[in-house]
């Protein structure tokens, strides 16, 4: 099986193949979507919406232009996404509530989510995210879903629980599940988050 094949390879090669696979999947999704949008625009612009077979009568030059324009859009978009993942930003939002806070005049609440921890986004990324969260000195930390990607197995293998347990705040750390937690292994994922 594929699982046993992966176990026999060096971890760095397995990680590289996973990143390559996900990048390729995203590339195909984006390019396919753009091709569809451009084809519909072509049919609308040329007033051939009732004759989609006209797509096959485009000139070779139009086809090449379409590919070049798509690459000019997709490759920078993927590169920017990778840059933003490696260099996340913190957005501060100040809210005033006309209500007594009892013993708290103000609270620093940190909201984070969509970590998608797993095979591709691994323990090193988790540690980077936890360090960034802890630098904010929040009074309360809220993790708002999709902390785990598809499988809990890599989190157990990489001992990600010990990394996430570094999250501390005076008023506590709370999480709510996202759709990825409810996919396969939902009970194990919920238990994993509750145990942290």
Describe it.
The protein is built from 7 helices and 3 strands, in the order αααβαβααβα. A 3-stranded parallel sheet has the order 1-2-3, with no helix packed on it. By secondary structure, the protein is mostly helical. The protein has helices at residues 2-7, 11-45, 60-86, 123-134, 153-157, 160-164, 186-195, and strands spanning 109-112, 140-143, 173-175.
What's a concise summary of this model?
The protein is mainly alpha-helical and 196 residues long. It has seven helices and three strands, in the order αααβαβααβα.
Low-confidence region ranges: none
Class from helix and strand fractions: mainly alpha
Q: Biggest sheet: strands side by side, in what order?
A: 1-2-3
Mean pLDDT: 85
Straight-line distance between termini: 32 Å
Largest sheet: 3 strands, parallel
What gyration radius follows from the Cα positions, in whole Å? 23 Å
What form results from the Cα inertia axes? extended
**Helical residue percent band:** 40-55%
The tally of helices reads 7
Q: Spell the H/E element sequence.
A: HHHEHEHHEH
